[in-house]
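Quick start: what a row looks like.
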Amino acid sequence: MTTAGQLRHKVVIQKLGDGENEWGEPIKDQWVDVCSPWADIRQPSGLSAIKADAQVSIVRTSIRIRFRNDVKPGMRVVHGERVYSVKAGPLAVDGKRVFVDLICEEVT
């Protein structure tokens, strides 16, 4: 069972959409902030592969946040310099609407 004290990572959840530059001009297809919740980031597994003659590491990560239903696959979670792609979720923890898990991947 997760408690609020375990949500110790401040993250930003973003979606691909239209935004504005510093002069207020519209910009198409850029990452736009949706919310900034506290999260519990857990990395249960990693996978290494070679793609196009380069070493690629894929880290599967579970990110737990307080319940919200507006986070969808295709969005991303930013924590400092790390960027995670949301692959599935939100999945309600214990079938309750208190916390949700986002299944994410970080490709490095």
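That is the whole record. The CA atoms of residues 3 and 37 lie 14 Å apart. The two ends are 30 Å apart (CA to CA).
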